[in-house]
Amino acid sequence: MQGSKRGAIPPFFVMEVMRAAFARERAGLDVLHLEVGQPSTGAPRGVLAAAHAALDADKLGYTDALGIPPLRAAIATWYRGRYGVAVDEQRIAVTTGSSGAFQLGFLAAFDPGDRVAMASPSYPAYRHTLTAIGVEPVELPTGPETGFQPTVALLEKLDRPVQGLIVASPANPTGTMLSREELTALANWCDANGVRLVSDEIYHGLTYGTEAVTAAAVSERAIVVNSFSKYFSMTGWRLGWMVLPPELVRPVECLAQNLFISAPTLSQVAAVAAFACTEELDAHVARYARNRALLLEELPKAGFTRLAPADGAFYIYADVSDMTDDSEAFCRRLLEDTGIAATPGIDFDPARGRHFMRFSFAGSEAAVAEAARRLIAWRRSA
């Protein structure tokens, strides 16, 4: 007996790279982890203290499907303080990570057979999740000429209409960002054409010289997705949120009740404290900035000269077409020869990804510096 065709989606290849890296570590060999988009630091001290208090005092039962009121209120306050945008807390849905948010948002917004556009390269789970629910991903080939971001011009070249558009700023894997003018133009095009805008904002807070713009500031119809995983350094707590247009709040609530019941209660209670931890969190961002500067200086010495701007997030996306036409094999050799784990571009761009790879600089400064040293020596010995 065969399983459902919905499960016949490609793997998330970075997880395959991590598996190989962990196998190397189990064999007693060292690994420098530049493959995974995960902060090397844990949750802020205030969050840990709140979690300990909750464990001592709270039975941690189910919560409302949309999240506990104090957390929804804290998120609304964050939008007022961070972006100057008034968001009604009743439009906020707390989710099981951004992954849960995308599942709920896609199910609420799109029907089987709909088409949803996105940049290529982009986060692979967009394509895979849409495919699993019967929605067609429509990839917009982007490059340096468009800042690796979708544009109105690319959308207007499509041969058939789309019902949705996903944007990410800062983006994974490129770290590129949309300006307010660019995001507004895309939002206006979506509104004029009856297209649902989905804005992935999980790397907000991780920017280097340019402030990220939330889609909540330029469109009331957009689905805005964010997470406690990246800036807030809480990946394993599995907690995210959405800002929803009013007409999607009840559909998302019903879906969440049936699919998830609620996001993890301990994580919700503790996360309220996260918004008071910005001094600690901004120190992490300063470390990422130093790692970014180091790699932008050192990677060209190893021959990596065609790099996406990396204005945000903690990734550098490198064109390696002058080194290999198989970035998967290239990354495998890199791990075997140097202990550096990096991600081939096939995760992010099925058509052109064999000519690209992604380096994460979310780790410690010592690890990133040692990776740069080994990479230069490896390339010079090639």
The end-to-end distance, rounded to whole angstroms, is 49 Å
Bin the strand percentage. Answer: 5-15%
> What's the pLDDT, averaged over the residues?
95
Structural class, from secondary structure content?
alpha/beta
Order of helices and strands: HEHHEHEHEHEHEEEHHHEHEEEH
* CATH class bucket of the largest domain: Alpha Beta
* Order of strands across the main sheet: 2-8-7-6-5-3-4
CATH architecture of the largest domain: 3-Layer(aba) Sandwich
Main beta-sheet strand count, sense and barrel state = 7 strands, mixed
CATH topology name of the largest domain: Aspartate Aminotransferase, domain 2
Task: Write out the CATH superfamily name of the largest domain.
Answer: Type I PLP-dependent aspartate aminotransferase-like (Major domain)
Which parts are unreliable, with pLDDT below 50 for 5 consecutive residues or more?
none
Number of strands: 12
The number of helical elements comes to 12
Structural domains: how many = 2
Morphology call: globular
Rg, please?
21 Å
Q: Percent of residues in helical segments?
A: 40-55%
